Amino acid sequence: MGGLTSESLCRGLPRICAALEACADELNTADGALGDGDLGVTMQRGARGVQGMLDSLPADVGMALLACAQAFVKISGSTYGTLLATGLMSAAKTCKGRGVVPWAEMSSLVGGAVTAMQHRGKGALGDKTVLDALDAVRAATAGLEASEKILTAATTAVDQVMDDFRGKPSRQGRARMFGDKSIGLDDPGMLALKRMLYALKED
Hints:
The chain is mainly alpha-helical. It has one domain (about 5-200): DhaL domain (Serine Threonine Protein Phosphatase 5, Tetratricopeptide repeat), CATH 1.25.40.340. About 65% of the residues lie in helices and about 0% in strands. It has nine helices and two strands, in the order E-H-H-H-H-H-E-H-H-H-H. A two-stranded antiparallel sheet has the order 1-2. The longest helix has 20 residues, at about 145-165. It is globular. The mean pLDDT is about 90.
């Protein structure tokens, strides 16, 4: 298939939702080491919200992404959920009115999402958050046109950025209060993104 469509979303999103259900405890544990310990619950609830509206997903890719964002934030309501929805809304705005969005545009869509999420959450690259992982995905997928290569590049990039940041302190959100104690720990938001991407990569 030549690009992102409502149909491809309907195939991929159930896999993401299933992965978020399966890793809820893992995400709660990771978040508990640096925050409130409820990220797994947040993602689980958001996944259920998205799963419940897939049968009525619009053919317009932009409107479909917007519907996903609205369903997720309506159920989850957390800071991470709001940021994720903000990124989806940025992509939705770019894709509005289109039935297919070429895979070659995925990098720029991720870049737009990072910018929107930075503005909404007042975060910065280098703070050891999901923004760093998403920006790595943006860079790694630039110029790629095949979905398989894009996904492989994205998962590799997230693995690498998690390795790179594991030895650094967190500087954003509640995690920043842990200071050097956050060194050696994975950022929960990055871990959630990793689980979502790997759900798409699995055969």
